[in-house]
TrEMBL record, chain A:
Function summary: Part of the binding-protein-dependent transport system for phosphate; probably responsible for the translocation of the substrate across the membrane.
Pfam families: BPD_transp_1, DUF3708
The protein, known as: Phosphate transport system permease protein
Keyword Cell membrane annotated: yes
UniProtKB/TrEMBL annotation, chain B:
Descriptive protein name: Phosphate transport system ATP-binding protein
Entries under Pfam families matching the protein: ABC_tran
One GO biological process term: phosphate ion transmembrane transport
Region of interest called Disordered, as start-end residue ranges on this chain: 1-21
Keywords: ATP-binding, Nucleotide-binding, Phosphate transport, Transport
InterPro entries per UniProt: AAA+_ATPase (IPR003593), ABC_transporter-like_ATP-bd (IPR003439), ABC_transporter-like_CS (IPR017871), P-loop_NTPase (IPR027417), PstB-like (IPR005670)
Keyword Transit peptide: no
GO molecular function: ATP binding; ATP hydrolysis activity; phosphate transmembrane transporter activity
Family designation: Belongs to the ABC transporter superfamily.
Residues of the ABC transporter domain: 26-268
NCBIfam families, per the entry: 3a0107s01c2
Species this protein is from: Prosthecomicrobium pneumaticum
């Protein structure tokens, strides 16, 4: 039924467009129109599309529950009330009876009959109301076509409305994610003290499932995770910040256009390597290499070390830093460089004292983006850093990060209201909060130093 | 091609008859500039007298800025540019491979078309040159240089209370005078100005022109300008460029009243350009 509705929508839209445009075109031949015929057509078409889509949305939101409640009401005996599970079971039976009446009980068959009737009613309502409104909209707009009718302004308002709606989708999704994580986090904090969560030094999220299970009370002190995340992030930035920045300076200031044309895409390929690939590169190549290097130096290195994960993560974010910094350095006006050369500055003096200070806000925001990326990265740490929540600053030991624990807590069959599962949301919330703060700080810095040149 | 051969001779004669050429500060002989395959400047020969203002005029794309940028070797920063011929400052070849371009640019300052203060404080803008050339031995030294430069650029009274504010926060005319202060802070001998007033309003232009006239006592100034009135107001000598050729050079009043070449006359009377 919906597909028929969509076909009707398309046909009506095209018809409204052609009718309005044709009428406006005919009028335009005799005198001056305010708007071009196409705008009259587009406005008429949107007068069809908008109400019909709205009706469809209302149908999609209300019809299923209306049909279901009708079908359930037809069932004899005790009302099912709020028991969602029983309700769903009965609905499945009814739906089966609709598709295949053989073998169903008379009560179910009656309910199926009611179901079918309600569905048909809803569908007819959709068709009549939707096509009626669309037809009215088209007729209204076609009738309004005239030399003084401002169809262009009207259609531009429609376009603005569509743009606003798209922007709202992105914003509302973010808000929705924040709230869903926030509510789960608050549920977790009813089971576990937030102070212990943020300051506790012990992380062992295994809880007893049965009463008689031994030990395992569950401790959710997240400090070891924060420390592990910070440690790996610092190692990654220690690699990515200088290497990325220096390669950006080379590319922007020294490299010949030909070399730049080759090197830049190659560097950006690095950004396209899936993180899983980086992960096994870290676990199978880098970690053993670091371990054997440590052994020759007489150091005891864990086979899964923070160093291995951090180094590989650093390599992963080099293209971020270099590509963004390169763009920013290129955006520094040539006139500033000329001014510096004209003073007798050498190339390196110009870069150090004029170009980099001018590009600083952009470079800082590139670094902040890289940090957010490093903090949120999961795959490499899962494969290379391990799962043990050690509270240590020693990069040679195995550590774990917030993202790894979230993944571990939610993988597999879990009950969704245990402290263990809910703690993942709390961790996610902390992570989200941290990157949010980073972004705000980065924006502040950029804003403060922006427009220093021009 | 005939005019190519003729032009240097004409200009050389004109330069000899320049009354202000007590001593030529900058001497150019047969300078040619190529941008890739494009021959931008043809056999320019000119003497530029010391402690006077020389104006380069001519229609857009005539090569006057190109020639200006040869004098402090700013064309070196353009990879496809190639310069042949000789330019001498105080009898020293500036395209000599042994010459350090950094030292040359300390002797030949430059002010650009659009004011381009660095994104630093007013003080740091002026202190930039002295710092990179190690001209100040102490902090007091540096402060003296900055103060003196701002005073000579006629900007001191307007900025003395806000030396630590951003140079980019000044008005366009103030920014351009800041750039002039920055250029004179390293005590150059020659100052090149590439249409220094084209981005300024008439009042700021008048201030900068006054300043150029004052600076003439201590510096040799070469100014590229699109405004013939400006050339007439500030310069003692004028050179007219057209299509990459130095057509005519001589004392400003002579160029503007009795030009020798038909092209100069046409340009000055506004028949083209």
């Amino acid at each position: 039924m919906t597909s028929f509705y969509l076909v009707a929508l398309a046909v009506l839209t095209v018809a409204a467009f052609l009718a309005a445009r044709g009428r406006a075109g005919a009028l335009g031949a005799s005198g001056r129109l305010h708007s071009l015929p196409t705008y009259h057509g587009l406005l008429a078409a949107s007068a069809v599309v908008l109400p019909m889509m709205l009706v469809l949305a209302v149908y999609g939101a209300t019809a299923p529950s209306f049909v279901q409640s009708q079908a359930i009401a037809a069932l004899p005996g005790d009302p099912l009330g709020d028991d969602a599970l029983a309700r769903a079971t009965r609905m499945r039976e009814i739906a089966n009876a609709v598709a295949n009446p053989a073998g169903a009980t008379p009560e179910t068959l009656a309910a199926a009959e009611r179901y079918r009737a309600a569905q048909a009613m809803a569908d007819w309502a959709l068709l009549i109301v939707g096509i009626g409104l669309g037809g009215l909209g088209a007729a209204w707009m076609v009738r309004k076509v005239g030399p003084h009718f401002r169809a262009r302004n009207g259609f531009e308002r429609v376009v603005i409305g569509v743009l606003i709606a798209c922007a709202l989708v992105a914003i509302l999704t973010t808000v929705g994610i924040v709230f869903s994580v926030l509510f789960e986090t608050l549920r977790f904090f009813t089971k576990y003290s937030w102070l212990d969560f943020l300051t506790g030094l012990q992380w062992s999220p295994q809880t007893a499932i049965r009463e008689d299970q031994v030990g395992q009370s569950g401790a959710f002190g997240a400090v070891p995770l924060f420390v592990g995340t910070t440690l790996i992030m610092l190692i990654a930035m220690l690699i990515a910040a200088p290497v990325g920045l220096f390669s950006a300076i080379y590319m922007a200031e020294y490299a010949s256009p030909r070399l730049r044309g080759i090197a830049k895409p190659v560097l950006e390929i690095l950004a396209g390597v899936p993180t899983v690939v980086f992960g096994f590169f870290a676990a199978l190549t880098v970690a053993p290499a670091i371990r054997s290097l440590g052994l020759t130096l007489g150091l005891d290195v864990a086979s899964e070390s923070a160093l291995a994960a951090g180094v590989v993560m650093g390599i992963m974010i080099i293209p971020f830093v270099s590509s963004l910094s390169d763009d920013v350095i290129n955006a520094v006006p040539q006139s500033l460089r000329d001014g510096s050369y004209g003073m007798g500055a050498t190339k390196s003096e110009t870069i150090k004292k004029v170009v980099l200070p001018a590009a600083l806000p952009g470079i800082v925001s590139a670094m902040m983006l890289a940090v957010s990326r490093a903090v949120g990265e999961t795959m490499i740490v899962v494969m290379a850093a391990g799962l043990t929540a050690n509270l240590t600053f020693n990069p040679l030991e195995a550590v774990t990060t917030v993202t790894v624990q979230i993944k571990t807590l939610l993988v597999g069959d879990q009950e969704f209201d245990s402290a263990k599962t809910l703690s993942a949301f709390a961790l996610g919330f902390v992570l989200f909060f941290f990157t949010l703060i980073l972004n705000v700080v980065a924006l502040r810095i950029v804003k403060r130093y922006r427009e220093q040149y021009d | 091609m005939n005019s190519l051969v003729q032009t240097p001779k004409t200009s050389a004669r004109a330069a000899e008859s320049t009354p202000h050429s007590l001593h030529p500060k900058v001497v150019a002989k047969d300078v040619n500039v190529y941008y890739g395959d494009k021959h931008a400047l043809h056999d320019v020969t000119i003497d530029i007298p010391e402690k006077a203002v020389m104006a380069f005029i001519g229609p857009s794309g005539c090569g006057k800025s190109t020639f200006l940028r040869c004098i402090n070797r700013m064309n070196d920063t353009i990879s496809i540019a190639r310069v042949t011929g000789d330019i001498l400052i105080d009898d020293q070849h500036i395209y000599d491979p042994k010459l350090d371009v950094v030292q040359l640019r300390a002797r030949v300052g430059m002010v650009f078309q659009k004011p381009n203060p660095f994104p630093k404080s007013i003080f740091e803008n002026v202190a930039y040159g002295p710092r990179i050339h190690g001209l100040a031995r102490s902090k007091t030294d540096l402060e003296e240089i900055v103060t003196a430069s701002l005073q000579r650029a006629g900007l001191w009274n307007e900025v003395k209370d806000r030396l630590n504010e951003a140079g980019t926060g000044l008005s366009g005319g103030q920014q351009q005078r800041l750039c002039i202060a920055r250029a004179i802070a390293v005590s150059p001998e020659v100052i090149l100005m590439d249409e220094p007033c084209s981005a300024l309003d008439p009042i700021a232009t008048a201030r900068v022109e006054e300043l150029i006239d004052e600076l003439r006592q201590n510096f040799t100034i070469i100014i590229v300008t699109h405004s013939m009135q400006q050339a007439a107001r500030v310069s003692q000598n004028t050179a007219f460029f057209h299509l990459g050729i130095l057509v005519e050079t001589g004392p400003t009043d002579q160029i503007f009243t009795t030009p020798r070449d038909k092209r100069t006359q046409d340009y000055i009377t506004g028949r083209f350009g």
